[in-house]
Amino acid sequence: MFLEIVTPLETLFSGEVKKVKVxxxxxxxxxxxxxxxxxxxxxxxxxxxxxxxxxxxxFKINGGVVEVLKNNVIILASL
Length: 79
What we know:
This protein is 0% helix and 72% strand. It is mainly beta. The protein has one domain: F0F1 ATP synthase delta/epsilon subunit, N-terminal (ATP Synthase, domain 1, Sandwich), CATH 2.60.15. Strands 1, 2, 3, 4, 5, 6, 7 and 8 form an eight-stranded mixed β-sheet that branches. β1 and β2 form a beta hairpin.
């Protein structure tokens, strides 16, 4: 699935991933390939990604919004 993490100033990440874990307002949740469409607000915390090679990466955010649609994940984040 394709992930973009975007802030008002820059794109932090853009590429193919296996899994994304985000800090939702109702609790953290994971997103895998073929996830149901969703839009959710995010709170301060850490976005964890696992790329197609199994490498983990982390991005700290102060909140934002995530949209999942047709194996495309867009995170609009504030830092």
